[in-house]
Amino acid sequence: MDIGGLMRQVFELTICPSDYNLSAQLNFSHHGPEYRNSDETGRSGYTATAAYLSLRKRILDFREYGHLDIRGEIRNLFDRYYESMNDCPSPGRSFFVSVAYTY
Prior knowledge:
Elements: E1 2-3, E2 6-15, E3 22-31, E4 48-61, E5 67-75, E6 83-84, E7 88-89, E8 94-102
Antiparallel strand pairs: 1-2, 2-3, 3-4, 4-5, 5-8, 6-7
């Protein structure tokens, strides 16, 4: 996919073994060299691959009343520096935990 001169490819792997009420998702996003100007000059030589990992576990299932999940996520798994569009730097490795009730 080409977004304003920035080459970006996304790969995703999701595993959901239903016997364990668990799901895992691994995402890779590759950002290739970009052009700084509309006439395709000033090309940046930078490339980066960002990886994200998330795990979700259903901890309570109330059948017709909903369910309770806990989720953990690691963003920028390899702690690499990269820039998104408009030269905006990415944060370093970060961790998130959430609890969600869905009915």
